[in-house]
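Before a colleague's protein record goes any further, I have to sign it off. My question to you is simply how this chain folds and whether the tokens agree. I do not need a full report, just your reasoning and any doubts. This is what I was given:
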Amino acid sequence: MNNNNNNKNNNKNNNFLIKRQKKLVFIRILIYGLLIFLISLIVYSNSLEGEFCFDDQFAIVNNKDVIGYNDEQSGTDSSTIGIPNTMDSMRDDEIFKEKTDYYGGGYDDDEIIPMKKFSIAYEYFSKLLSHDFWGQDITKMDSHKSYRPLTTLSFKFNFITSGFKLDSESFHLTNVFLHSIVSVYIFFISLLIFKPINFSNNNNNNNNNNNNNNNNNNNNNNNNKKVEEQQEEDDNDYNENKNKTSYLLKLLGVDEFCCFLTSLLFSLHPIHTEAVSGIVGRAELLCTLFLMISLLSFLKCCSVNSTHWGYFFLSIFSLIFSTLSKETGFCLVFILPITDFLLVQYPNYKKQQQQQQKNKKSTYSSSPLSLMFLVRTIIISIVGFIFIYIRKLITVNMVLDNFRMLENPIAREPVLLTRVLSLMNLHSRYLWLLIYPMNLSADWSFNCIPLIKDISNPLNIFSILAYSIIFFSLIYYFIKIEFFTIIFKSFITLKNLIIKNKKQQKRYNKEEDDDEDEENENNNNNKNKPEYYNSILWCILFGIISFLPSSNIFFYVGTAIGERLLYIPSIAYCLLLSRFLTLPLIYLSNKNYNNNDNNNNNNNSNNNVNNNNNKYQITIENSNKTETNNSNTTKKRINKNSTSSSTSPSLISNSNSKKLNNNNNNNNNNNNNNNNLKESKIYKVYLILLILIIILLSSFYSIKTWQRNEDWKDEASLFLSALKVCPNSAKVQYNVGILYRRTKEWDKSIEHFNRAREILPDYCDVDYFYALTLINKNGDYNQAKPYLTKSMNCRYTQIRSLEAINEIMTFLLNSDPDNPMLLADWANYEKELQPVNSAMHFHKAALIHNNQGDKKLAVQLLKESLNSLSRVNDTMLNKKSIERDKRIINELYCQDYIWLSAVYFDLQDNDQSVKTLNYIYDHCKHFKKIWNEGLLSLVNLKLYALKNDKSGKLPSVNEILLIRTQMSQIKDKEYKLGSTQFLAQYAQNYESVDFSKAVQLYEKLLSISPDPSSYYNHLPLLRLSWYYKNIKKDQSQFEKYSKQLKSNLIFDNDLKKLFSEL
């Protein structure tokens, strides 16, 4: 009884110790998380002073989705801005300051009624959801196709909370905070990933084996001896649980340290500075944050045969939010099923396998992959397909294909071999940046990493090495987890469920039994060795899958190398590095535990032998007692003597065997103790070495990250640091040249611009700044003119070039206002973007040339003005004043034509002059002054043409009627009277040619001369009466016109004569 009480007390103490250790583990985890958060904040604290750099200008400063849609405040339309390829380096610090302060108005809540607030919010979100990351219409062909509304919304949140100002510090603080949170999440996700498989099960196996042995012994024992055996068993269990607890705590300590090391390396890794210190990297941070939440929720919801649907759908929504933060988040559609397979299904499969080994028999088992695994995978797949379909509807085109060779030269390389070799080299460089992040650059564009065009290039060795490491690692770990066996068994099970073939099932069971027997023999030596094959394989697959969207394998992306693209794949690298660094500690701990376990097993087996001997002795004594009770008293002594003589040898032999076993146990224990001492020394040495490695590595990472944050403080430090890493990058040389422009070091600026053009001759962006630098240095516009023209033909610099040209031309024309060449140049620059201004400048230049006597050039410029006006469409006009703008444009048309007619007249090209005046007559009635002037000129030209026509050919009736009408519309009495005379004259002229046409003219003349006493009323009546009496013989028509004649009102002698003839 005393022994039982002691055992119970020992078990209670042991349980108390375990609970206490669990509390300590929980406290340690909280401390680890807090440390990671603080370390991340500290190492990136110097990034808070940074400005908006590089792509921040496009994604934030010039993005209307962030700063607002007020057209009067917002400069040029975002739809005309090219794809972001360079920093907005045109601005000076003063201009930039004015621009950032300009958006400080915001909305006054007191002035906006709730319905209007809702309308503003609805309008904002409708635009946000139809724009790409850079603020462009995502349906357009020149859109970047990066759909990240959640990231843009976070920028908008920073903008609002900063008082509707672009405060870079608040943007940077948000980035640093998000990175710190992500680092803590990685610590927690690591705890769930790095869970050993074999340990707990193997110990259960040991316990079960001991229980089996005890059960066999109990069958041979008497009921009276069960208490003694139970006491021994409890002692063994206590010792075993004590060893298990100490090992488990040691194992958990190493795993905790491994997870802490993972998150520490991640939080400090210098490759993340672009994602954290560059504000545009917010997309990576938000995407990773939601990705971690999705993974944690998924691991929380999943068990082998059940699902917590609340956590599952939280994981699905986090997947969607991750993808709406950046497209890389969509890789969760593939990562989540892999997580289910490796971290949920596989451990269960191993447990089933070990249970079969323990029982030493095999029955037909269910599929290694549960039905719930298939259900979860199908749901995730359906969500993925629905998301792609909706994304396709929104973006029209899913993939970007309008980037230049400058950004991704591999995508524009026509030779397949060069593309493949260069792509492999690119991937090996990505891997090297993770391993040794020393040479970092904000830009890796053409020709920082030259294309590999030859198989004999030595760089191919590193590419093959990188691919080989990854490939053979995958094969190794797939084999170690018996991946192909699991898949095969799953298909067999599925097939059996479908066809229900029991014979096939039995045959499979036999084959499975044989295979398991062989596996049992192979696995006996590694019973207590903890397995991490599944978690290591998960890390490798996670790194590969998360890297695929940026790998240029399935589709090309708009950059060769981007350090921020490694933000998510680096999680896998940090997991693997920390796991392999700490794995020796676990295996050394495992050896010590196995040695102790072997000692306990040996002691237990020897105790069993001694117990059997004691039991044998007790059995003999009991039998002797039975015999003496049934025998005679005379035989008692004999039987006792015989019994004593028969039992004494066995007792002696048992005592001797007990001594031998004790000696062997002592020797084995001594050997194991010596091995434990050696291994504990190795453990301590490696632990010290590991601590030194971690200190050196974390120090290197911290210093490099701190220095790299300093590079990201402004564009000057950023691109000067990039120049050291990528001196052959055309883009880096270009941006460094811009930096020297700001400091007015013109010669250095020109030198870097020339270097950029040498690297990439088609780099049209350079021409704009090169032209400005020439003007700044020499003041020579003529020297810069060809480069300005090229810059206006470059879609990436058109807007900035035109702004600069406007300033240059305004300055030059102030000193020489009547220089038609400057005006014509200005007009040519403005043709594409500002066609109305272009037309005005062409018109003004034409008038100057006309005054100077250069008529032909004036005609040419006026035609160019008309051509510029023809480029205008409704999308170029202000919607609020579109009617007013259209009127201005029409008036410009009329002015061009009126002047064009005058110049043609001066050039004695009357036909062209009449054509232009006809346009005025038809289209310029709303502009009375121009129209009247044009009409007068038109009539005069036509009359002049008829007067000087020596062909003798009469104009058509329609032409005569048109001229008469045009003459009557002139606000001059002489022209109105002359129009009637003109009509009567040509009616008389047509009598000798075609009297029927003369009749048409007379009838028109009669209709416009209602005065019965007028000469022009009597003339048509007399001629029409004569025509119908003498030629047509139409008495009715004759009487119609003749009755209108009144002889007392005819005063003209010629008309009286005609009347008398009738």
